[in-house]
Amino acid sequence: MSITRIVKMSFKPEHAAAFEAYFLTIKSKVAGQPGCRGVKLLKEKGETGVFFTYSQWDSEVDLNNYRHTETFGQIWPTVKNWFADKAGAWTVEEM
Q1: DSSP one-letter code for 11
Q2: What's this model's pTM, rounded to 2 decimal places?
Q3: Domain boundaries, the chain
Q4: Per-residue DSSP letter, 20
């Protein structure tokens, strides 16, 4: 069964623009992972540094495999340093 992963990230104001630019450079790398059907970046309306990534996966196994790749190992530590608060993540499925 396919799944959707939603990750909420709050960035320090001075890093919000850097994250937006960085996302453009990594979007295709994430979308190209086995089992990934696509990834989008959403921004909370009226907030400078609150973003959500919305990615769709063939299965939770595919998502977990991605989380153990070199690509994820490079992306996550980079963006984590820019956080203003701990990220929140949800894995959901359509009913």
Answers
A1: B
A2: 0.93
A3: 3-92
A4: H
Q: Distance between CA 22 and CA 73 in Å, rounded? A: 15
Segments of the chain scoring below 70 in pLDDT:
none
CA-CA distance, 28 to 35, in Å (whole number)? 13
Tell me yes or no: is domain 3-92 CATH 3.90.1140.10.
Answer: no
Where are the alpha helices (H) located in the chain, listed in sequence order?
16-31, 60-66, 70-80
pLDDT tens digit sequence for 66-91: 999 999 999 999 999 999 999 999 99
Q: Within a 10 A sphere around the Cβ of 81, how many other Cβ atoms? A: 9
Q: Are 89 and 37 in contact (CB under 8 A)?
A: no
Q: Give the DSSP letter string of 34-54.
A: TTEEEEEEEE-TT-SSEEEEE
Contact by Cβ (8 Å): 41, 53: yes
**What's the confidence (pLDDT) of residue 1?**
83
pLDDT at 95: 84
